[in-house]
Automatic annotation (TrEMBL):
It is an enzyme of class 2 (transferase). It comes from Streptomyces mirabilis. Keywords: Nucleotidyltransferase, RNA-directed DNA polymerase, Transferase. One of its GO terms (molecular function) is RNA-directed DNA polymerase activity. It holds the Pfam family RVT_1. This is Group II intron reverse transcriptase/maturase. The keyword Transcription regulation does not apply. Its EC number is 2.7.7.49. PROSITE patterns: RT_POL (PS50878). Residues 95-347 form the Reverse transcriptase domain.
Length: 489
């Protein structure tokens, strides 16, 4: 493929009438295939794909299915309002006309501050775009993501298709058991707020030539923020959390880090093969591996603490041109025997009980445990008058979702402890509500043989998370499939 060639997909896409999802999937598969085949190619003629009716339909469906669909932007319209007052076909037709004619303008995002988890007292700033902006951002993401996914390195896992936090934890476990036991546990300070637009757009332009698409991306970056106090602020840096396209733009910006640290693992790199890595260790040279999830990352080092500190300084220098800095409070060099927290897990190299063998273990960290307990307490307050069926349904949703995330850790005892905690909270609430004695509780929740019965409300039963099977999550390495390559087979 020649560089800077046009995509020219419109004719082939219209040869056979397809449903919107299939049409968009085929478009994405083609873009991804071409991007993989020619790493230097810059894509033009993408604008028609952004405002294609099928793209907008799929984009709206994704926005409507998002948890933030009930949140309103500065125009006070939610997705439900659009569906009820305007109608989706009319809304999308009008939006498509605005995009095609150049009349579309991105509106400022509405600022919403939410407390960060863990009870630190700090807040996270979210930016909630209007529904129209969210749909256009989703359409942009549908077109741009398959192109940039061809360039992203296998060491990043956040906000990427077919990848999850458990993959990042499995990679840490894999390398930790192979001698990579010094850890640079790093966090980028206010990453989404501080990304410099100029180098970010330069990285976008390295793959995208279509000026109209670039103008849309820039418009969302510069849209501004309406603060909670009603003040309109310009956005000179950053990409607001809450925007549909923000995670993709953050990954594009942070790929500069992945490329730099992972370069030694490329086919011609000094760590490309096991043999080369072994030779480096024989010469007392360090090996390293980065594992990144959004703006949280760790660098695992097979070497010394001094080697890890040197990488710390090097990485800080690499991030500087993007306007990013490492958080001094959250960045540390630790040995894996001390343990560290990452993505809610506590990872530690320790001796197996009763033996002299040492292994890397993955536990549930304290912060997410405190967080889920706080949610359980909120649902089971002693004086609560909420319907018991609602309380049990909510508890099942909260606890099972939490447990499914952590079910690949050493979590069996934690799950049992949490079941016990929840049971006592419910019993305390029911005793207060119905003025029961302990004898009343035993009479209602035990059989004649003394076996305890589950707490129920009609057909709704409190389900134990300790019954969820705890299994080892297998490291998938380079075998994580691309969704678009799957569509071609």
């Amino acid at each position: 493929m020649p560089k800077d060639a046009q995509v020219n997909t419109s004719a082939s896409l219209e040869e056979v009438p397809l449903g919107p999802r299939q049409r968009v999937s085929e478009m994405q598969a083609k873009l991804h295939r071409w991007a993989v085949a020619d790493p230097g190619r810059r894509f033009d003629d993408l604008f028609n794909l952004v405002h294609d009716p099928a793209t907008l339909v799929v984009a709206f469906d994704r926005v409507a299915g998002n948890r933030g669909a009930r949140a309103a932007g500065v125009d006070d319209l939610t997705v439900a309002d659009v569906e009820e007052r305007i109608g989706v076909p009319g809304f999308l037709n009008d939006l498509r006309t605005q995009i095609k004619t150049g009349a579309f303008r991105a509106l400022p995002v509405r600022e919403k501050k939410i407390p960060k988890p863990g009870g630190s007292g700090k807040v996270r700033r979210l930016g909630i775009p209007v529904v129209a902006d969210r749909v256009v951002q989703a359409a942009l993401k549908l077109v741009l993501e398959p192109i940039f996914e061809a360039d992203f390195k296998p060491v990043s896992y956040g906000f990427r298709p077919n990848r999850r936090a458990q993959d990042a934890i499995a990679e840490i476990h894999f390398f930790g058991t192979r001698g990579y036991r010094w850890v640079l546990d790093a966090d980028i300070q206010a990453c989404f707020d501080e990304i410099d637009h100029t180098p970010l757009m330069a990285r976008v332009r390295s793959r995208i030539k279509d000026k109209r698409v670039l103008a849309l991306v820039r418009a969302f970056l510069k849209a501004g923020v309406l603060t909670e106090l009603g003040e309109l602020q310009d956005t000179h840096t950053g990409t607001p959390q809450g925007g549909v396209i923000s995670p993709l733009l953050a990954n594009i910006a942070l790929s500069v880090l992945d490329e730099h640290v992972h370069r030694a693992w490329e086919p011609d790199g000094v760590m490309a093969t096991q043999r080369r890595r072994e030779r480096r260790r024989l010469k007392d040279l360090p090996n390293w591996r980065i594992v990144r999830y959004a703006d949280d990352f760790v660098v695992l080092v097979h070497g010394t603490a001094q080697d890890t500190e040197a990488l710390h300084e090097e990485i800080a220098h690499v991030l500087l041109p993007m306007g990013l800095r490492l958080s001094p409070a959250k960045t540390q060099v630790v040995h894996m025997s001390e343990g560290f927290d990452f993505l809610g897990f506590h990872i530690q190299w320790r001796r197996k009980r009763g033996t002299n063998k040492w292994h890397v273990y993955t536990f549930v960290a304290q912060r997410p445990l405190r967080s889920v307990k706080a949610k359980i307490r909120a649902l089971t307050h002693k004086t609560s008058q909420q319907d018991l069926g609602y309380v049990l349904t909510s508890l099942n949703m909260v606890m099972r979702g939490w447990a499914n995330y952590f079910r690949h850790a050493v979590a069996k005892n934690t799950f049992s402890t949490l079941d016990n905690f929840t049971w006592w909270r419910l019993i305390r609430m029911l005793r207060e509500r119905h003025h029961w004695t302990w004898s009343d509780v035993r009479r209602r929740f035990t059989t004649a043989s003394g076996r305890w019965l589950p707490i129920t409300a009609g057909e709704i039963e409190l389900r134990k998370i300790s019954e969820i099977r705890v299994t080892r999550y297998r490291y998938r390495s380079k075998s994580i499939p691309s969704p678009w390559l799957l569509q071609q087979t």
